[in-house]
Amino acid sequence: MLRSSRELSSRVDLRVHQQPNRLRRAAWWLALWAAVGSLLWLTLQHSLGEHQIYQAGDVTIPHRLIENECWRCHTTWTPLQRLTSFSDDLHSIDNKKCESCHRVAEHHANQVPAHRDISCAACHQEHEGAAMLTQPSNRHCIACHADLKTTHGPSEIFAKNVTRFDQLDGHPDFLLKTLVTAAADAPPPHAKHGANRAIEHFQRPGDAAPRWQDRGRIRFNHAMHLKAEYDSSGKLIHGLIGKDRKFTDLSRSCEVCHEPDHEGRFLKPISFERHCRECHPLLFDHERFPGQSVPHQTPDIVRGFLTETYTLKEVGSRKLEVGTQSDSQLRPLPGHRDFQRLSKEQAKAVLDDVTKAETIAQQHRHSQFGYEATGGCRYCHEVEPVATKSPTSLADWRIVPTNIPSRWLAHSEFHHEPHRLLSCSACHAGVAQSKNTGDVLIPSIDICRTCHAQRPGDWLEPLRSQKSDAVSSNSPHQPQSELLIDLLSSVNRGARTSCIECHKYHDPIKDRRDGSFVR
User: I need a labelling partner for 252 at 20 to 30 A (CA). Which of 136, 310, 315, 381 fits?
Assistant: First the structure.
C-alpha cells in the first residue's frame, strides 16, 4: 500500500538545521586560523625588519644594474587600475619602456595578434632569478602556431599547426626536403618562402626530366672527392692525392672544404683559391707554358689573358733587325726620347708578325676556351651561348651564374658547433654516393628527432640501422656518432626540443627578402 505524503513527511527531522555541521564548521575555523596566522606572520616579519617578503624574486643578471629602480620597467598603480577597470589591456610593464633599451622589430607584419598588441612581459618574464629572459617556454610559441592565422586568414606560407617537435604530426618536415622527395608535379612553395632560395624546379643537363633540386649551377661530384679504400690492415690504399703526394681520405675530413665560421653557426662559402686550386691549378698549355695557370676570373679576363700570353709568345720569338746608332751621334738631351724609325720593310715585318701572332693566339684561345672546348671553365661551370653578340666582342658564350645557396634553412638556425661530436655522415647520409650536383643532402627532421626528443630511444634505432658512418664503411675507426648514440640510449631524456633552439621571434638575420621579416 502506498504511503501518503503526510506519512512520508513524518520521517523528516524538522530540527536538522539546528544541529551543527562539523565539516562546514571545521572548514570555517581552518580558514579563520589561516587568515589570523598569516597576519601574525606578516606582523612578526615586519617587526624583525624582514621586508623582502613584500618584494618580487631576484631579477636576471642583465637587469641587476637597475634592480633598485623599479620605475624603469614598472608603471605605478597599474595593477590596481587593471583590477578596477576589468581590462586585460593594461600592463604594469609598458612595451615602450622595454624598447627604450632593446631595439627589436616585429615578427611578421601580418601576424595575429599584432606585434604591438603583445606585451613583452608575456614571453620575457622577469623576477625568475637566474632564468634566461631570452629563452621563453614553448607554450608561448604554440599559443599562436598551434592554429596559425594572419590578418588575411590562415597562413599560406608556413605550417598552420605546430604543437611539438618530437611528434610526427607535431612539426612538419623541412619544406625543401619534402619537395625534393615529392613527385615532379608537386605544388611549388609560396613565392615568399625561403626554400626558393635553396632549391629550384628545373632540368639540369643530363637529367631525364625537370625536378626539384639544388639551384647551384656548379658541377661537383661528392662521390669522386670522397672515394677512399682501406685494406684489411686498415691502411689507406686509395684516395685523393694531397700535397705530400700521399693518399688522403677526405671522407673523414669534411672540414677541409666546409669550414665553420668563428661562431660555429654557419659554414663559410667555398672558395676556389682556398679549396680547389691545390688540385685544380687551371693549367692550360703545359708544352708552351709549363706550370703557368690562367686566373680564376670572368671569361673576358681569361680571354684577354690567353690572347696576350700567346701574342707575346709569338712576337717575342722573332727578333727584329734594326740599324744601330753611329758612334758619332750626339748624346740625346735629357728628357727627350729619340726612338729610331723603322724602315718600311721592318714595319711590314712587325705588322706581319703581330697579325700572325694574334691569329695563332685566337686559335689557341678558341681551342682551349671556346664554346666547344670540353675543359676549362666548362669542367666545373655550366655555360650557355650568347644570344646577342656585339661585333666588337670576342665572347660567344657566358658562364651561367653559380647561384650557390648561402643558407639552406632560411627560416631557422642551426649551429654546427654543439654537434661537433657527430660525424658529418650521421646527418648527411648518402654524401659518399652523391654524384649529381642537384642532390640535396640536408637531413630530414627525423634525423634531428633521434636526439631532440623527450625519449630519444624511440627514435635512435632507425639511425643506428643506417650505419651512421656510411661514408667509409671499411674504415677501422669507430665513429664518434655511434658513441653518442649509445650515450643517448642510456639516458631517459634527449637534447632540448625548445622552439627557440632553431627559431627566433625577433629574427636578427638580415638576409630577408620577402618584406615580412626583420631587416
Answer: 381
